[in-house]
Amino acid sequence: MSTSMLSVRGLGMQFGGLKALSDVTMEVATGEFVGVIGPNGAGKTTFFHAISGVHVPTSGTVRIRGQEMQGNSPDAFCRAGVARTFQTPRIFGDMTVLENVRFAFMFGNRGGDAALVDKVIEETHLSGLRGETAGELPPARQRQLEIAMALATAPRLLLLDEVAAGLTEGEVEDVARLIRRLRDTYGLTVVWIEHAVRTLMKTVDRVAVLNFGQLLADGTPAQIAADPKVISAYLGDEVDDADKADKVDEVSQ
Fold first, then answer.
1. How many CB atoms sit inside 10 A of residue 22's CB?
2. N or C: which end of the chain has fewer CB within 10 A?
3. Please, what are the domains in the chain?
C-alpha cells in the first residue's frame, strides 16, 4: 500500500475579503504524478504557495510524509524534501548554468553527494551549456535549468508551476517527456500545474481540477476529460466541441 507523500486537509487561504482557497483536501501518494489544472485565478499557484511555505494557510493542515508543515518557512519545506519551480524561472541570470546548479545544491544539501550536481546537469540535457550565462539562455533552456536546480536539492516531492509556459508545442512535449523520465529516474513524487492541458493529461497519473479556489474534481485523466463539471468550468474553454471526443480518446489510451 502506498504511503502519503503530501496530505492536505481543509486548506484555506484568505487575503482580506478574497478567498483564494477554500476547504481544499487532497492526498498525493509517494511516487504519484498528479496534474493540477483550472482557469486563471482558480487558486493553483496559491495552492503551491501554501504547500511549499511561501504563504501560511489561513486554515487547514499540510503534511509532508506525515509531518505537519503549515506555518514553516520555505527552507524548512526544502529540508523536508520539497522543491518547486515558479511560473517565471527563478534563476541567477548573471551566473553560469553550473554555478546555478551548484548554488541550489548548497542550499538544499542534506549531506548529499556533490556528484549530484553533474548528474542533474546531464539528466536535464544541459551538459553542453555548463559554462553559459543563465540569463542568455532561451526560455526552454531556462526552464530546464530551473528543473535542474530543483533536482539539485535532492527533493522527494517536486512541485512544477507551468514549466511549459511560453514554449512551443514541440518544446512542451519535450518538457513533459523530461519530467516523466526524471520522476522515474529519481523516484520522485510530482505535482504539476499546467495550462497545456492536452500534454499534461497524456503524461500524468491523476488530475485535480481547481475552480474558484475549490477542488472541483479529482480523478484519472479519462475521468476528468469526460466530467461535465470540468468541461463546463474549464475544458470547454480549452478545446472546441469537435475536439472533446478526441481528448477523451487520447487520455483513455
1. 18
2. N
3. 1-81+156-167+195-253 (3.40.50.300)
